[in-house]
Amino acid sequence: MSKEAAAMCYSYRDRRMEEEARKEMWVREERKRRQRQKDKKGRPAEKDRELVRA
């Protein structure tokens, strides 16, 4: 295997791992956000404030 091919393989794998990590973090954030929304169902004013902040 040439150096270029080895580098390509590594960068591809690296990119895949990065993608997986990013997806995992997004899923975690999404779960937290949903939980917060569930908690705030009775307080619409706070929900609006959250939207403005974001």
Structural summary, described in words:
With 54 residues, this protein is mostly helical. It has one domain (3-53). The protein has 2 helices and no strands. It has helices spanning 3-39, 44-53. The protein starts with a helix and ends with a helix.
Please render the helix and strand layout as text.
Elements: H1 3-39, H2 44-53
Brief rundown of the structure:
The chain is mainly alpha-helical and 54 residues long.
The termini sit apart by 48 Å
Query: Tell me, what's the shape?
Result: rod-shaped
Helix content: over 70%
Query: Count the helices. How many?
Result: 2
Uncertain stretches of 5 or more adjacent residues: none
From N to C, what is the helix and strand string?
A: HH
Number of separate strands? 0
Which strand-content bin applies to the residues?
under 5%
- Classify the secondary structure makeup into a structural class: mainly alpha
Radius of gyration computed on alpha carbons:
20 Å
Major sheet size, sense and barrel closure: none
Average pLDDT score: 79
Number of domains: 1
Top keywords for this entry?
mainly alpha; 54 residues; single chain; 87% helix
